[in-house]
Amino acid sequence: MKALTSPEAGVAQGRQDMGLIICSGCEEMVDTIPTDGVKIIHGYCGKGECERSTAQNS
After folding, report:
1. Its domain of life (predicted)?
2. Which residues of the chain fall below pLDDT 70?
3. What confidence score (pLDDT) does residue 39 get?
4. What are the percentages of helix, strand and coil residues in the chain, rounded to 5?
5. How far apart are CA 33 and CA 48, in angstroms?
């Protein structure tokens, strides 16, 4: 799992992206979102093994 202080988490193009979307399958950071505080949202990235595991759970 990537640390919340990774350089990717701080990349904000003129906005405060304090929310993180983390893949529940591979635990990689998928994207950041603008929020009024630190928020972590779990979803799936849709790549490789993660895509297959979501199809099996359906």
Report:
1. Bacteria
2. 1-15, 52-58
3. 94
4. 25, 25, 50
5. 24
Task: Enumerate the domain spans of the chain.
Answer: 18-50
CA 41 to chain centre: 7
28 φ, ψ (degrees, to nearest 5): -90, 155
Task: Give CA angle at 55 (41, 30), nearest 5°.
Answer: 30
H-type alpha helices, the chain: 48-57
Q: In this predicted structure, what is the pLDDT of residue 14?
A: 56
Tell me 8's DSSP state. G
